[in-house]
Amino acid sequence: MGEFELIRRFFASAACAAGGEGIALGIGDDCALLQLPAGEQLAISTDTLVAGVHFPDDADPFLLGQRALAVSASDLAAMGAKPIAFTLALTLPDARADWLEGFARGLCAMASDCGIGLVGGDTTRGPLSLTLTVFGRVPAGQALTRAGARPGDLLCVGGSLGDGGGALPLVLGERQERGPEVDYLLQRYWAPQPQLALGQALRGRATAALDISDGLLADCGHIAAASGVALLVETTKLPLSSALESLFSREFALNCALSGGDDYRLAFTLPASELAAIRADWPEVAVIGRVAAGQGVHLLDDAGAILQPPALGYQHFGSQGD
Ligand code: ADP
Ligand code: MG
What we know:
By secondary structure, this protein is of the alpha+beta class. It is built from 10 helices and 13 strands. It has 2 domains: 3-139, CATH 3.30.1330.10; 154-307, Phosphoribosyl-aminoimidazole Synthetase, Chain A, domain 2. The chain has helices at 3-12, 61-79, 97-114, 163-171, 180-190, 196-201, 216-227, 242-247, 250-259, 275-281, and strands at 23-25, 33-34, 40-50, 82-92, 117-125, 129-139, 154-157, 208-211, 230-234, 266-270, 286-292, 296-300, 306-307. Strand 1 and strand 2 (33-34) form a beta hairpin. The longest helix is centred in the first third of the chain and has 19 residues, at 61-79.
């Protein structure tokens, strides 16, 4: 199978490449064309997933397609952007039809959930890696950035934390039990749901936001630095799923919530007056702390005293990374 046949068979003719709102021209020409409504800005983000680094070499292609798009679309959610389109740069060791078919199905399943269309890409031979670029739109000046948190704001998250970190030993085959809790954690890892509607609802309300990909403490550090404030996190308020709590010790579960990656929940700062309106539609939103004058991220124990933070999230080329 040649490059062009591969593109045509698995991508150009895929359900998620059929076009959609904001897509003036899709796959097949030298560029795709996107149409933005007047007064809107284009939000763009790229993520690369490398076999052996971000996922096991033998990962199920359907799950991988789902996950690759979910982690990219989560960045649009974090900016309060509405998805339009994405591109896929795919490097493959060989062109196996069954693998490509499963991968494209997974990609299209997540594309349908997110309301986003495949508009182009590149296909090359080499060690398996995926680079996705997502494009979204947001009313000019209303994107949620990491800067803007103010002392007195609440620190909130969009749902349970630590599921991604808890899933890791299961994904890597280090633990092999089965059951509904295991299924839940694996689902959270392989098909995280980008919080797109929540992100859009936070426009004009939240003062800062991001999606948690590297772990709560590390990612909150980005908000603290960009906003020039301190974030105080109350460990007793961290929302943990019952699956995480039932499968692991409390210490491990808390560590996953604080420092495990791959949660793809939104973390945001919010004036207290906005909380009720957000909670009405997203009851799972949890207040986990507050913004104060100062700098850095600080953990508070039950009594409100500052704890020494454990290791921060994963960093490539960092002290704990490769
Ligand atoms: P060019 O040589 O002009 O860069 P290519 O031959 O690389 O174009 O690709 C042909 C068309 O197929 C382009 O529209 C490109 O965006 C699209 N394409 C290539 N690879 C992929 C892919 N993996 N997924 C989706 N579209 C792809
Ligand atoms: Mg090309």
